[in-house]
Structures are given as structure tokens and as C-alpha cells.
Amino acid sequence: MADQRRLQGKVALITGGGRGIGQAIARAYAAEGASLTLAARTDTELRSTAETIRSAFGSEVTTVITDVRDREQVENAVSHTLDRFGTIDVMVNNAGNTGEIGPLWKLDPERWANVISVHVLGTYYGCRAVIPGMLERGRGRIVNMAGVGGPNDTSYDAAKTAIINMTENLSVELAGTGVTVNAISPGSIHTRITVRKGRRSYVGGRRLD
């Protein structure tokens, strides 16, 4: 019987793929048959996640150390994926971080700007690197991660708002090409970022500590 998994034969590149939401996306894609490139800054987390996915799903998984603030490193992740698999069907711009929590005027400017750099520049570099190849093939899917912060979290909020607007504009620019781009907002998830923000996440009314 032919493999009926929905992503069989597809290739996905996921930034921030070593842990948290990126890891969960990678597992979900692998369960549907996709081959994966996981890109992140921490090699040990990448290797651990890749091995877990290979063992659980028998998937082809490759990893590449990538700081999404660096355009050349993002482009290298794309080249690495193309060299290994020959195509990129899905790009997930998931890498993220958080800065200080507090009133805007009391926050460290460098840490504030770093959040913008990771989220906004990282998403821009990822889109920019994969779109030409997707356009050439006449197909492709880009998923950008949106979200909300709240009071005293201006860097994260500004970054995610920029990603939403970037995605909206890009979707118009790509209309009719076979390449689509969407932003998703998963809500409050119990990951390292929410823990660092000192927030509690809830699932079904139950607090996750």
C-alpha cells in the first residue's frame, strides 16, 4: 500500500528547530513523512532532536548550526538543505528569543534591538533565501511565527507585529506564483521563552509550571 502520509516526499527547513515549538513542528512534519533540516544555534539540542525524530519516525533529518541574525548563515542553511535534498518545499521561520520585561524606557537598548534582529531580520533572511528557488519551481510554502507579548514586552510585540505586516505584504507580492506565505500565532505555549518571561501558561484551564 502506498504511503498516505500528507508530506511524504516533501522537504521542510525549520529554524529554531532544536527545542520548543520548532521541535514540535519538526515532529509533526516528520510524522507526516517530511524530510527535515533543523537549524538553530545549539548543536547539542539539534542533534538530540534529530536523533529522536529519526528513531520515532524513520525520517531523514539533517542539522545545521545557524544564527538567524546572520544573513550568510541563513543562506548557508538553505544551501545545505538544497545540497542534501535538492529542494525546499516548506520554510518555517520559527527561531525566536525574548528580551527584558519592563517599561520601554528602562530596558537595555542592545537587548531590545536583539529581539528585533532575531525575529524580524531572521524571518526576512529566511524568506529572502528560499523564495527565488520556490518561484523557479512554481511552488512553496512559507510559515512565519507571529504572536503577542503584552505590556512591558515591547520588543517582542514590535517584532511580532512587524512579522505579521511583512507576511501580509509578502502574500500579496507572491499572489498567483504558487508560493504562499502565512503567519500563525500559537498563543501562550509553555516553552523556555515563556519561562524566561516569568509567565505561566495554561492548557485546558490547567496551569503549567
TrEMBL record:
**Please, which domain of life does this record's source organism belong to?**
Eukaryota
MF GO annotations: oxidoreductase activity, acting on the CH-OH group of donors, NAD or NADP as acceptor
Ketoreductase domain boundaries: 10-187
Q: Which SUPFAM superfamilies match?
A: NAD(P)-binding Rossmann-fold domains (SSF51735)
| Pathway entry | Lipid metabolism; fatty acid biosynthesis
This chain belongs to which protein, by name? 2-(R)-hydroxypropyl-CoM dehydrogenase
Which InterPro entries does the record match to this protein? KR_dom (IPR057326), NAD(P)-bd_dom_sf (IPR036291), SDR_fam (IPR002347)
Which Gene3D superfamilies does the record associate with it? NAD(P)-binding Rossmann-like Domain
Query: Its family?
Result: Belongs to the short-chain dehydrogenases/reductases (SDR) family.
